[in-house]
Specification:
Length: about 230
């Protein structure tokens, strides 16, 4: 939608970046019908200083799909601030921490993340490589964490292996023993004011914000604070 809106206004070069080559292919397939220059790069966001050479200025750096919340905010915003120029834009979205009371909000988030569909989503890469879903248990907690902008919440997720299992990845075999624990990635849940506070703290200027009608999702367009 964004690309289609931008294409009549400017010449675009689309650059899809992900650590998963499958996701990069998916991104390129999605825009196959759009007439523009395209590049797919398998890389880490942490490679941003190297990735910059693949984009032309000005850039709109997009972190969408609640991706912003998958990184440590201080590291992420510091890195982005050092890599973006003043005429670049930064577009990202966030699923917000639900309105208080706090105990109810936490339960609400945990309920969603512990749903069978989400558990299946989390273990799927291992199941596709041979793990029997009944041989592991999924745990998730939403824990308070003190940040430079006050208390935020972050998921803590792990898998407990219940029975010795062997996974296959290409020619490799991976043995998991009963009792093993596999840590999984996290997601932060911020309040609306924390997200804006972080932007300001790290030298970004908010250009426009869009809040979903239920108040749960925030989309923000920002740029570097002019000097
Ligand atoms: C929350 S999903 C977002 C997916 C996509 N933006 C969407 O909206 O469908 C997170 C994506 O980030 C990728 N990823 C995880 N860690 C990464 C990293 N350090 N650098 C680049 N991509 C990463 C994952 O492979 C996954 O595709």
């Amino acid at each position: 939608m964004l690309l289609e809106a931008l294409i009549p206004r400017c010449q675009l070069h689309y650059c899809a970046v992900d650590i998963s080559s499958q996701m990069v292919d998916e991104a390129l397939n999605t825009v196959a019908d759009i007439d523009m220059e395209k590049t797919g790069i398998v890389a880490f966001l942490e490679d941003l200083p190297l990735l910059r050479q693949f984009w032309s200025q000005p850039a709109v750096l997009c972190l969408l799909g609640n991706n912003f919340c998958n990184y440590e905010p201080d590291y992420l915003l510091k890195t982005l601030h050092s890599q973006l120029e003043c005429d670049d834009l930064f577009l990202f979205d966030c699923h917000l921490f639900p309105a208080p009371p706090e105990s109810v909000s936490r339960k609400q988030v945990e309920q969603i993340y512990r749903s069978p569909l989400n558990v299946r989503f989390n273990i799927d890469p291992l199941v596709r490589r041979g793990l029997d879903p009944d041989n592991c248990a999924f745990y998730l907690e939403l824990l308070p964490t003190e940040t430079s902008l006050g208390r935020a919440y972050r998921t803590s997720k792990w898998l407990h292996i219940l029975k010795d299992s062997t996974l296959s990845s290409g020619p490799d075999k991976i043995s998991l023993a009963a009792g093993d624990t596999i840590g999984l990635g996290f997601t932060y849940k911020y309040t609306d004011s924390q997200v804006e506070g972080y932007l300001k703290h790290y030298g970004f200027h908010k250009i426009e914000r869009f809040l979903s009608s239920d108040g749960n999702n925030l989309l923000l367009l920002a740029c570097k604070q002019p000097a």
